[in-house]
Amino acid sequence: xxxxxxxxxxxxxxxxxxxxxxxxxxxxxxxxxxxxxxxxxxxxxxxxxxxxxxxxxxxxxxxxxxxxxxxxxxxxxxxxxxxxxxxxxxxxxxxxxxxxxxxxxxxxxxxxxxxxxxxxxxxxxxxxxxxxxxxxxxxxxxxxxxxxxxxxxxxxxxxxxxxxxxxxxxxxxxxxxxxxxxx
Length: 183
Prior knowledge:
Blueprint: E1 4-6, H1 10-22, H2 30-36, H3 45-54, E2 58-62, E3 65-73, H4 85-93, E4 95-96, E5 99-100, E6 106-114, H5 123-135, E7 141-147, H6 151-160, E8 163-169, E9 174-181
Parallel strand pairs: 6-7
Antiparallel strand pairs: 1-2, 2-3, 3-6, 4-5, 7-9, 8-9
């Protein structure tokens, strides 16, 4: 059985980067992007290691191969990925339940991806449920932004319990900011 766990080795992080690379828009065709989704940003190992030191991401392995991941990005990661500054600026201005979002303990889903041959097996839900098990005592909300073009990801996040709280556009894309309330 495939089960979620925290990433724990440099090998895990390198395998995350491999899976990420396979699912970037430059490496898949438009039909696959529309039907299966995609990841937008490319990380490098030093950035992933810094994110992991603050709060490990969740992975699922088949034997010793990472076949799914969900990266944990604390607000302290703001400076690590300059392309995400527009997202962080938007989050600074947003509210949740009549309070500023920054009044809540929240973190950001840094990216989520499942290998082609493992989609449709419930791994998306496993990744998120493991995040909730591990981090719900430290955080009230899990927040992320999803490309408005990534219909599969939007539907999957909605099914998990995320609610759209804002839509905005930056130099990369149009984004839906979504939040999953754990309080």
